[in-house]
């Protein structure tokens, strides 16, 4: 088998792809996976932006590589779960699993080719003028080369282990997302024309993951980054004494990480053990992609394809560096050298809240506070927990945790609270993908300290973000709550945009108490007043509000829908948005990533627009707005419009009810619709078009990732959607 495509194979593949795109074009829905690739293209577009400095551009290139790793681990892994076991699947695009895979791989090949072109042609030429280079061994002087060889002999060489595969050795278990050398060897004196293949052996040398990717050489005028694989390649002969090395090639594989969990309701230990087993299985899951140096041994590659049951279009050849996530080392090195890690000062939220309130309980009693991170500091949330841990009047703390930081102040506050005799209940979702090990470790720490830890709910992921503090205030017991769209993670709160509501509203806190009873016990409340929850009634409630807007439009009343979410994939909800559009409802969608809805199609979705914001911060906020004939209903929360959110997760949306906080949410949506720097508009064919630059249109620059750091109360209270009449009478003098 030749891994290079013949002209006939290319023509056959092109025919399949063209036929597939004809099917895709006719579908009323966009493929989730193809839409995901479009999102990564928008991230890559940030790396193209010449207005950014070189380190920012490298950062976005590294992010695209990390995204693609997850794509092959989860999405392509999921596709193989159908292909390998003969299960049928029809994608939203209308394609069955095999033609869809060919189409998906072709699109991914084009994307990867562009990332490599961008790195070599656009970014590399800028390295030298910014004081650094990625080099080869030939760029070192004699003294530097001696230091490199000494580093190899002392540090690298003792860690390397060649693993041979031949008729007496089984194929080794190679790690995913690890750089590996494939070495074809032959013992001296064995080779003849007749036995050339029989005498060959393949061995694999994995580069240890705890070694830094680049060996750094600092000169007076520049910093040089030498890829560690080039050092090993130069010295690899030391592992094969008295053996002829025929070829050496670097590669990297990605494995399937999409697994189903068999959950045991009657045994907590079995549940944790099952998760640990699945984590190990993920490390040895089926191979979904090979990244390989160009010019590798054809014979070795054929063996690998046969072993891993892959096709030619599953190989991604590279003529530059493999694994662009390596650029994080360069970025961090530059930050340390410059000592200029940019972090704009956050602004206080509307109301009486300071950056670090002396008494958070007193502040919260004055009214609801909506935090918009990272523009508002995450500190008040940390203060709520830390003050609660020390306050003798606090009786209990309840919280849901999905992802926390490595050195979490959240976890430390909960530990201190338990040590101080508070009743601490933690629903710790240990099934959070790729954070399972960290979550299990932290959950066990909390449990040993005396916290009541619930390890998620069998069959569901707990994704909702809730915190409740119960405080004895003499004449009454009062509840203080925080509800959020983002995780209780002080690190990502600086990088992701999210909203969080601090409240003592008795209606909402009563709902939260009921909801905690549901997810930690066996309660079944009749209804919530200001919460919408999944898997119970979220889809049904959202559909009902969409239908209400359609009814208003048909009756000639004002209507409108604006959703800001990460992903839009649930077909039932999409169909209702199509119907609302056909009824005359203006639907404005702000969708960061996956969008399976097809906008602007005649007769289907002419009144629907979709835009995506991709820029300095990862857009993570979820806000749901329904015009409701001039009396808007606005919700925030943790849920996207996805099948998994509605059917397979414990989620919540909370009503943003108070006049001031509701107007703040409307203002966030309003400015997201005005952004002309980070915004992309989705076309009917599923592609995205960058909004024309302000200078081209004669407009002022409107970059929400900068503007939200400068917002004032007047701008907030003047914001409108769908040209509704003013719903706010009072003015606020407090500046944001």
UniProtKB/TrEMBL annotation:
It catalyses: [phosphate](n) + ATP = [phosphate](n+1) + ADP. An intermediate of this reaction is the autophosphorylated ppk in which a phosphate is covalently linked to a histidine residue through a N-P bond. The gene is ppk. GO terms for molecular function: ATP binding; metal ion binding; polyphosphate kinase activity. It is an enzyme of class 2 (transferase). One of its GO terms (cellular component) is polyphosphate kinase complex. It comes from Arcicella rosea. Residues 144-330 form the Polyphosphate kinase middle domain. GO terms for biological process: polyphosphate biosynthetic process. This is Polyphosphate kinase. Mg(2+) binds at residues 403, 433.
């Amino acid at each position: 088998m030749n891994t290079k495509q013949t002209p006939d194979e290319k023509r056959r593949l092109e025919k399949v792809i063209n036929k597939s795109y004809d099917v895709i074009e006719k579908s009323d829905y966009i493929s989730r996976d193809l839409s995901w690739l479009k999102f990564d293209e928008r991230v890559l577009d940030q790396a193209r932006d010449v207005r950014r400095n070189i380190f920012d551009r490298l950062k976005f290139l590294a992010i695209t590589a990390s995204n693609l790793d997850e794509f092959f681990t989860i999405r392509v892994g999921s596709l193989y779960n159908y292909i390998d076991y003969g299960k049928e699947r029809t994608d939203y695009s209308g394609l069955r699993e095999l033609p869809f895979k060919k189409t998906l791989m072709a699109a991914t090949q084009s994307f990867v080719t562009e990332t490599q072109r961008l790195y070599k042609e656009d970014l590399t030429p800028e390295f030298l003028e910014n004081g650094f280079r990625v080099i080869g061994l030939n760029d070192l002087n004699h003294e530097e080369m001696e230091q490199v060889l000494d580093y190899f002999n002392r540090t690298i060489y003792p860690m390397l282990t060649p693993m041979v595969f031949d008729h007496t050795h089984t194929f080794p278990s190679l790690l995913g997302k690890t750089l590996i050398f494939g070495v074809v060897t032959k013992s001296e004196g064995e080779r003849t024309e007749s036995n050339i293949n029989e005498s060959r052996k393949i061995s694999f040398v994995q580069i240890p993951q705890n070694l830094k990717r680049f060996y750094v050489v600092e000169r007076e005028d520049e910093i040089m980054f030498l890829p560690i694989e080039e050092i090993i390649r130069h010295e690899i002969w030391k592992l094969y004494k008295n053996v002829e090395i025929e070829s050496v090639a670097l590669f990297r594989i990605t494995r399937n990480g999409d697994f189903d969990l068999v959950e045991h309701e009657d045994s907590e230990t079995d549940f944790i053990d099952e998760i640990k087993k699945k984590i190990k299985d993920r490390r040895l899951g089926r191979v979904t992609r090979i990244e390989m140096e160009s010019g590798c041994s054809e014979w070795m590659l054929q063996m690998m394809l046969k072993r891993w049951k892959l096709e030619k279009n599953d190989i991604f050849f590279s003529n530059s560096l493999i694994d662009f996530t390596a650029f994080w080392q360069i970025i961090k090195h530059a930050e340390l050298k410059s000592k200029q890690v940019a972090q704009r000062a956050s602004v206080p939220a509307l109301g009486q809240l300071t950056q670090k309130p002396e008494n958070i309980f007193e502040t919260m009693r004055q009214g609801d506070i909506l935090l918009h991170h990272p523009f508002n500091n995450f500190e008040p949330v940390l203060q709520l927990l830390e003050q609660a841990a020390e306050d003798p009047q606090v009786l209990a703390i309840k919280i849901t945790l999905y992802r926390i930081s490595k050195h979490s102040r959240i976890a430390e506050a909960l530990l201190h609270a338990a040590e101080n005799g508070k009743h601490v209940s933690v629903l710790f979702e240990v099934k959070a993908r790729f954070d399972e090990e960290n979550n299990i470790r932290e959950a066990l720490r909390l449990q040993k300290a005396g916290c009541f830890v619930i390890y998620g709910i069998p069959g569901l992921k707990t994704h909702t973000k809730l915190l409740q503090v119960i405080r004895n205030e003499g004449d009454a017991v009062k509840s203080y709550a925080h509800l959020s769209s983002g995780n209780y993670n002080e690190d990502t709160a600086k990088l992701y945009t999210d909203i969080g509501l601090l409240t003592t509203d008795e209606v909402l806190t009563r709902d939260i108490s009921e909801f905690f009873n549901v997810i930690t016990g066996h309660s079944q409340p009749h209804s919530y007043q200001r919460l919408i929850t999944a898997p119970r009634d979220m889809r049904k409630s959202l559909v009902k509000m969409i239908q209400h807007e359609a009814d208003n439009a048909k009756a000639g009343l004002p209507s409108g829908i604006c959703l800001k979410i990460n992903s839009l994939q649930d077909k039932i909800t999409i169909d209702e948005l199509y119907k609302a559009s056909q009824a005359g409802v203006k639907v404005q969608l702000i969708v960061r990533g996956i969008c399976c809805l097809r906008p602007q199609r005649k007769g289907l979705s002419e009144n629907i627009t979709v835009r995506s914001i991709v820029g300095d911060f990862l857009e993570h906020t979820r806000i749901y707005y329904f015009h409701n004939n001039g009396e808007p209903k606005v919700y925030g929360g943790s849920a996207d419009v996805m099948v998994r959110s509605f059917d397979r997760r414990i989620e919540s949306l909370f009503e943003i009810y108070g006049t001031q906080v509701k107007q703040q949410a409307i203002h966030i949506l309003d400015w997201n619709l005005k952004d002309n720097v980070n915004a992309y508009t989705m076309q009917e064919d599923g592609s995205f078009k960058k909004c024309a630059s302000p200078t081209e249109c004669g407009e002022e620059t409107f970059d929400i990732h900068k503007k939200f750091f400068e917002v004032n109360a007047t701008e907030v209270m003047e914001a409108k959607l769908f040209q509704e009449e003013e719903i706010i009478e009072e003015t606020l003098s407090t500046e944001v």
